Amino acid sequence: MLLLIIGxxxxxxxxxxxxxxPLSSWLSGRIELTxxxxxxxxxxxxxxxxxxxxxxxxxDVFHGQPLLLYLFYNLEDYHxxxxxxxxxxxxxxxxxxxxxxxxxxxxxxxxxxxxxFSNGFVHKDSKDIMITVNHxxxxxxxxxxxxxxxxxxxxxxxxxxxxxxxxxxxxxxLLSVSRGNRIVSVFFLALSTYMSFYPIxxxxxxxxxLLSDSISPPPKINIEKRSSTFYFNFTIAFQFASYxxxxxxxxxGFVGLSYLMMGAKxxxxxxxxxxxxxxxxxxxxxxxxxxxxxxxxxxxxxxxxCVFQLHIGIYVLPLCIRLHDNQYATxxxxxxxxxxxxxxTNLGDASLYLSLLPTWAYCFGYLRQVFAIILCALVSxxxxxxxxxxxxxxxxxxxxxxxxxxxxxxxTFLIGDVFFAMLRYRYALVHGTKxxxxxxxxxxxxxxxxx
Length: 451
Hints:
The protein is 65% helix and 0% strand.
């Protein structure tokens, strides 16, 4: 009941922010909250061009997908009534989808730990750190509350950013995977890739989950030796290929429909996916691309574009292999990495994976850099608008770029620290929470100087 009240309050706040035109317009102009890909103002310009019979993708103004363009073109007559409600419902719905996803994760981990403990694969000293029913019941509520009451998420919704729909589709894909719904999960994976491309990096861990024992009860194998029930035999290879084919089919369907809508032209691909992958618009944002490519010589640009874009992809297989028994953690880590290293980053990109952070509260005791992460995140977020103003006065972009670097550093430290906490928690489950010497006496872990 309390969660529904909070949801209603969060929806009302979002509606008020969108309905207050001066506030919504001011937020839409903030480069910390919008990007050329997700900007509402960009969508309005694309709609105006489309209404006048001009190809909205002929220039470098609009980068949204044709299906979204067609949707809002048909809703234009109900702009003041339907569109604010559409953004609000999509954003609030995302919070509850994330809650269900978090609940599925915790239920799976709880059942798995219970089975391992009953089989003697969890150390007797580690019983106190195991997930309890209380975790399963309460932590998912915190996930939705964090998203609903997050000021950044509220402000992003107030800008009518298209990122709202990206988050919703990714959340639906993750929830479908956690429920083992293979058809729906592949559909939403393709739809989210069509919208923003970067969810393509989530395909392998999602299919790994669908083919592994993460949906079914775990086998009675030691945690240390278990490599999941994902074995590469002929049947698994055939199923893996079938998922890839289904994913490509849906993706090709969305692209084909867009092709027909745009008069049998593929020009929209250059402006949509090309706008994401080639990063031609160097409008300042909270990401790392814009400053690097402003300062870079043109003949180096193609090489470093490939390096920057493939940077996220290099983490996929190593994380899948290292976290083979918990691909949910892999998905969370990849969502965080995408939010940090995508071409056009804004503050709202972090809302998705930060909202899921309470899911991993059971291993927070092993975090090491909490103070530094919080300090860097607060300073960078609070000072970014002021440093942007200083840039305009001094004509020196280094002030603002320093804040974007600090913001990216805070997120990178957070992802790395949570990753370490997950591994340390897993080690404690198997070997116990008390470290002992060879003679059996309690020991204290100390960091000695090198050499």
